[in-house]
Amino acid sequence: CAISSLCEARTSPLTIKAHASSQSVQTYSSHAVEYDSWFDSELFKPIYLAEWNCVKAALLDFFGPEECFTLLEIGIGSGRFAVPAQQAFPKCTMFGIEPAEGMAAICADSFKRINSEVDIRKIPAEALDPSTFGDTKMDCILFVTVLGFLGDHDKVIENIKSVMSPRGRVVVAFINGKTPWGGQLCKLTENDKFYAHGSCVLDAQEIEDLFMRHGFKKTTSGSYQTLIGPPDALAALDFGDVVSNKGESLRILPGLGMGMWAVLAFEEVK
């Protein structure tokens, strides 16, 4: 059962089909530099940093800054979340899955610039198996706005189970489509080539249901949100206003429901 995008009317969701993955890979690989430049733009850099700090808050609920652990990011992209994770957790050993070669190349270069290393396998998440990284088991598996671009969600969740350590945690970051701003983001990106074959806007309950089907449960900690929008469902999403009102909008809050950017965490049921 695929996760649905919330970019269509709630009564008729767009189911993200398997063919989307290969088309998305081609787009992100060919336009990797263009995509990566978003993170450094004057307008969006404060937003990106708030998103990262939200992910970091979840990671800190499970791992200490000086703790040794392994982290695998599914869809590591250009490394915009893996690189600061490496810096925040210097004893972490970093791994990644990234089929878009252009993105993987930027990621590898970014790790070199911080005098660190990352083991990236250029395969789709559907091809991950227990032998991909040898005998290494992952203490943390990170998904950042990638679930809506996968072809076979159930297979991917089973695959990550096969490489998780007994203490493993899964951290999932996404755009919460049930928030006013989250719903509007779909319309703002509907003609964007990077979202033509997938979506970062998802339903938190669908994500939880997906993991529960495969023997996971939501953790008691690790849920955070940012890009806090007004309660008024008609309030327009304007990224300039988000940044100028950063004292409010860029706060990191526990839980879900107010922030367009959301993070959930899961663990296997023992």
Top keywords for this entry?
270 residues, alpha/beta, ten-stranded mixed β-sheet, 10 helices, 12 strands
Give a written overview of the molecule.
Helix content is 35%, strand content 23%. It is an alpha/beta fold. Helix 1 (20-30) crosses helix 5 (101-113). The two termini are 24 Å apart.
* Residue share in β-strands: 15-25%
Q: Roughly how many Å apart are the termini?
A: 24 Å
Radius of gyration, CA atoms, in whole angstroms: 17 Å
Poorly predicted segments = 1-6, 8-20
Query: Strand count, sense and closure of the main sheet?
Result: 10 strands, mixed
What is the assembly state of the chains in this entry?
A: single chain
Structural class category:
alpha/beta
Number-wise, the strands total 12
**SSE pattern:** EEHHHEHEHEEHEHEHEEHHEE
Shape: globular
Topology:
Blueprint: E1 4-5, E2 14-15, H1 20-30, H2 32-37, H3 45-60, E3 69-74, H4 82-88, E4 92-97, H5 101-113, E5 119-121, E6 138-144, H6 153-163, E7 164-176, H7 180-189, E8 201-202, H8 204-213, E9 216-218, E10 224-228, H9 239-244, H10 246-249, E11 253-254, E12 259-268
Q: Brief description of this entry?
A:
The protein is an alpha/beta fold. It has helices spanning 20-30, 32-37, 45-60, 82-88, 101-113, 153-163, 180-189, 204-213, 239-244, 246-249, and strands spanning 4-5, 14-15, 69-74, 92-97, 119-121, 138-144, 164-176, 201-202, 216-218, 224-228, 253-254, 259-268. The longest helix is centred in the first third of the chain and has 16 residues, at 45-60.
